[in-house]
Amino acid sequence: MLYISEIITESVSAAFSTCGYQDADVSVKISDRPDLCEYQCNSALPAAKKYSVNPMEIAEAVAGKLREEVIFEKVEALKPGFINMVMHPEFLKDHLKELAAESRLWAEGEKNPVKTVIDYGGANVAKPLHVGHLRSAVIGESLKRILRYAGNEVVADVHLGDWGLQMGLIIEQLREEQPGLPYFDENRTRPFPHEAPFTLEDLERMYPKASARSKEDEGFLKAAQETTLKLQEGYEPYREIWKHIMEISKKDLKRNYDALGVTFDLWKGESDAQPLIPDMIEDFKEQGIANLSQGALVIDVSEDGDTKEIPPCIIQKSDGAALYATSDLATIIDRKNELGAGDFVYVADKRQELHFTQVFRSARKAGLVEDSDRLEFIGFGTMNGKDGKPFKTRAGGVMRLEHLIEDIRSAVYDKITEGSDISGEELDDTTEKVALAALKYGDLSNQASRDYIFDIDRFTALEGNTGPYILYTAVRLKSILEKNTAAAGADVSRTDLGTPLTFKEKQLFLKAAQAPAALREAYEKRAPHVICRYVYELSDICNGFYHDTNILSESDEKLKCERLALITFIKDILVECLDLLGIEVPERM
To answer: Three-state DSSP class for 118?
Structure first.
């Protein structure tokens, strides 16, 4: 079905054509002044220049034609050439009933769905998740849901950092602390110990210690680099240590991602692409696109029209070691060959934009992807503290993600227990859902590329543009419907909509009708914040309607049924949209 904006635009375009302005560039937008009109068209102004006619002459002629349309209740032409439109309540009723009859809001979805791999998470093994991992996980999870909702086949890959220098640093630190381990006995062969000689806590202690030392001790750094290279070349004792690290780290990472409500289809890492690298590099050489530069093998990715210098993409260091770009290119080959992907979406810190530009250009230059394949980088900004600097603990350190979640959970728990009789398991469930809503909505409501201030007090507030406010609206509607079901013994169908009678009721109809367009915009722009903006506006209008309108207390049974149908549909819209943000609605608050 057509969106309400499309129906209006078609009518206005037809009116322009009928009046003799077939080549006018017609656009319609939601009015900035809902007290004056609901939709407006300013296209008479540019058309006047094109046709050398007074804009009011065009606006009045077009408005006259539009008044003949049954979809409008009122159309006005105002100086200097604006066309203001008010929708007919009967048209709104019919349109919304048609939308409510659909199984989902954006029924048609992507016309040409593709196999999509979305790469987000980006966690490094042997390190705990910290606040810096929040945005990738939350934005990536929402985009995964939005892409699937549109009809694409989507595979989510966490793409672990499991093959870089941190592996060599940990192994060398382990050698220092436990030199007698069989992995460091050059004469030792299989079998190696089945159990890891270290714990998660040991890993979390060893890596920072080794990393700090590598910055001061060149000998230690060189040893770690050599160990990393031996690991990458397949040295079995180091591979056994690496397997222990992977097993312990994955278990902890899955626990943390589960707590955040974030899931992945694949738990692959940089290591999975390593077997493809030698042949890939040879192919690059044979094609003549990879050349030596100061001992390293590079691909020139500069292009005509670049406004700034794009350095060559280094794919092999002078010592033969691979880099992140090398692994990313081999991973594209893996995703193309094994998954048949046609759309590659990467969610990472916006400061990695140059890296992905180099990788994408290299992939296209080398023919790793088809011309029709889409390589897309979605860069996000920094989550900052109230001081405007990257978020830290009170002691000035990097906060672990699980501690951040616990802090926001504690704040939500205090607010819920202050004004509610919820207890026991229901209290735990509600606290969990509201806390994650506060955290995720606080992040997603900002445009991904922008930095934002993390403020627990603001994010957990029950009023304003917050996750808890949206949840409270949905829970309130669910409560009204449950009370009606208990009294009437039957649910209300959301298609039993009546004609909007009041200003606020009509505003609610209008906003509900805009849901499909909001979801399409979020999909096309890869922008969860569009959904956040929409559900906040819908919730705000809905709460105004609720306060000013009799629903359960309405004496006219037909009118009550129609209003219950309306809030049933509004509740369903909120639940459907929130699910795309990775947010669940509790039973009570």
So the answer is: strand
Cα–Cα distance measured from residue 20 to residue 40, given in angstroms and rounded to the nearest whole number: 20
Provide CATH code, domain 4-87.
3.30.1360.70
Q: Contact 344/373 with Cβ under 8 angstroms?
A: yes
Q: What is the mean pLDDT of residues 154-163?
A: 95
Q: Considering only CA atoms, which of 554, 555, 513 is closest in space to residue 534?
A: 513
d(CA 392, CA 435): 20
| Token pair of 252 as six digits | 């902890």
Distance, in Å, from the CA atom of 567 to the CA atom of 494, rounded to the nearest integer, reads 8
Is the overall model pTM greater than 0.85, yes or no? yes
User: Where, residue-wise, is CATH 3.30.1360.70 in the chain?
Assistant: 4-87
> Are residues 489 and 554 in contact, defined by beta-carbon separation less than 8 angstroms?
no
**Phi/psi at 76 (5° precision):** -130, 145
Distance CA 343, CA 376 (A): 8
**What is the bridge-based pairing of β-strands 343-349 and 115-119?**
parallel
Contact between 532 and 459 under an 8 Å Cβ cutoff? The reply is no
Q: Summarize pLDDT for 435-481 with one digit per residue, the tens.
A: 999 999 999 999 999 999 999 999 999 999 999 999 999 999 999 99
Here the contacts of 25-30 (C-beta below 8 Å, separation 24 or greater) are 28/85, 30/5, 30/514
Q: Where in the chain is the domain with CATH 1.10.730.10?
A: 401-580
Do strands 82-87 and 72-78 pair parallel, antiparallel, or not at all (unpaired)? antiparallel
Nearest-angstrom CA–CA distance, 585 and 468: 10
Residue 153 in tokens: 């086949």
Contacts for 307-315: CB closer than 8 Å, 24+ residues apart: 310/354, 310/357, 310/358, 310/361, 311/354, 311/358, 312/358, 313/358, 313/359, 313/361, 313/362, 315/281, 315/284, 315/290, 315/362
What is the four-CA torsion angle of 273, 277, 279, 281, rounded to 10 degrees?
A: 150
Q: Which residues contact 441 (CB under 8 A, 6 or more apart)?
A: 459, 466, 467, 470, 532, 581, 583
Identify the CATH number of the domain defined by range 401-580: 1.10.730.10
- Which residue type does 565 have? A
In the block, tokens 């794009």 appear at 310
Per-residue pLDDT tens for 288-307?
999 999 999 999 999 999 99
- Provide, rounded to the nearest whole percent, the portion of the chain with pLDDT above 70: 99
pLDDT digits (tens, 9 = 90+) for 498-515: 999 999 999 999 999 999
Q: What is the pLDDT of residues 404-436, one digit of tens each?
A: 999 999 999 999 998 788 999 999 999 999 999
Q: Is the pLDDT of residue 187 over 90?
A: no
Residues 419, 368 contacting (CB under 8 angstroms):
no
Angle at CA of residue 545, ends 544 and 547, nearest 5°: 65
pLDDT band at 190 (very low <50, low <70, confident <90, very high): confident
